[in-house]
TrEMBL record:
UniProt-listed Enzyme Commission number(s): 1.1.1.169
InterPro entries in the cross-refs: 6-PGluconate_DH-like_C_sf, 6PGD_dom2, ApbA, KPA_reductase, KPR-Related, KPR_N, NAD(P)-bd_dom_sf
Residue ranges constituting the Ketopantoate reductase N-terminal domain according to the UniProt record: 10-164
Record pathway: Cofactor biosynthesis; (R)-pantothenate biosynthesis; (R)-pantoate from 3-methyl-2-oxobutanoate: step 2/2
Listed name of the protein: 2-dehydropantoate 2-reductase
Reactions it catalyzes: (R)-pantoate + NADP(+) = 2-dehydropantoate + NADPH + H(+)
Function description: Catalyzes the NADPH-dependent reduction of ketopantoate into pantoic acid.
GO CC annotations on file: cytoplasm
Principal EC category: oxidoreductase
Length: 320
């Protein structure tokens, strides 16, 4: 393998629920296997960063509890060596700032793996990143920060589904898959990752909007016929947008995604729901309602249910 294309330095940019989950697994593995030629670095902030610097990051799951200590943790990319692989794990509203921070560290062989909710994340990053390889991806895992330096996994198998950069379709994923194998990270390489990305978006956007609109957990929405029907209608609108974009979603995808909600712990809240509940906190509403409405308008796809639900949410939040 070309030495320039090997992975040595890994950066987890954003060590919240998703970044902390993978960061803990990677750092823990590297801490306990000195034969691995990888160095893992974290970009975090606030009390979470201070806790990680003092005692590493802890991941609590039903399976086990592990702690990993990164090679370094900081709130400035300038403090770190140029990474070969960057996990971008911020919320959608922090994506532009994250991209601005990592751009000076990107070279032609840098691999960027975005693991955040959204169906147009690749396009948003590529708009501002001229070089490097960006691998469109999605991940199924339910996690959140339980406290400074502590991540709690509430569901999902942590599988990363990713595929080729449309700009570099001949990209060889072996350095990444070798790394994932060494870290025992669950993954699957897709020739075309977009059906997976849109399937994930169809689920999370519909349930994000429904959980906030009805003020119910994922389990409560799944158990309520009216709430479930609203989620179904939003899913239909998202599916129509995906079809208009040339993305062919799996057969019976809406039925499958609705059934999947019942597999989550009954009291699971969406990240949008948790953000809305925190007074004064920025939320991901635009990622869901805003994106669906904009793309629907651009593609001539009618989105009346999303418009009604999102407008009601925005009105409610404005009145607080």
């Amino acid at each position: 393998m070309d030495e320039a294309k090997k992975i040595h330095n890994i950066c987890i940019y954003g060590t919240g629920g998703i970044g902390g989950y993978f960061g803990a697994k990677i750092a823990h593995t590297c801490n306990h296997d000195q034969t691995l030629a990888y160095d893992c670095f974290f970009v975090a902030r606030g009390d979470h960063l201070q806790a990680i610097r003092q005692k590493g990051i802890t991941l609590i799951s039903e399976e086990k509890t592990i702690t990993g200590v990164p090679a370094a943790a900081t709130d400035h990319m300038d403090d770190l060596p140029d990474p070969d692989l960057i996990f971008v794990c911020v919320k959608s509203y922090d994506l532009d700032g994250a991209v601005k921070a990592i751009v000076p560290k990107i070279h032609e062989n840098t691999i960027i793996l975005p693991l955040l909710n959204g169906a147009d994340i690749y396009e948003r990053i590529r708009k501002n990143v001229a070089t490097g390889v960006i691998l469109p991806a999605c991940v199924y895992v339910g996690t959140h920060i339980q406290g400074p330096g502590v991540i709690f996994q509430s569901g999902g198998d942590g599988k990363i589904l990713f595929g080729a950069d449309p700009k570099y379709e001949s990209f060889d994923p072996q350095p990444v898959t070798d790394f994932f194998d060494a870290m025992q990270i669950n993954y699957q390489w897709r020739t075309d990752p977009y059906p997976d990305i849109w399937s994930k978006y169809l689920f999370i956007a519909a349930f994000a909007l429904a959980t906030v609109f009805f003020n119910k957990t994922i389990g409560e929405v799944a158990a309520d016929p009216k709430a479930t029907q609203t989620a179904r209608e939003i899913m239909k609108e998202i599916q129509a947008i995906a079809t208009a974009k040339g993305v062919e979603l799996p057969e019976h995808i809406i039925t499958k995604q609705l059934a999947m909600a019942a597999q989550f712990p009954y009291d699971t809240k969406t990240s949008y729901q948790r953000d809305v509940a925190s007074k004064g906190r920025v939320n991901e509403g635009d990622l869901y309602g805003g994106t669906i409405l904009r793309q629907g308008a651009e593609l001539g796809v009618s989105t009346p249910v999303t418009r009604s639900v999102y407008s009601a949410i925005q009105d409610r939040l404005s009145a607080k």
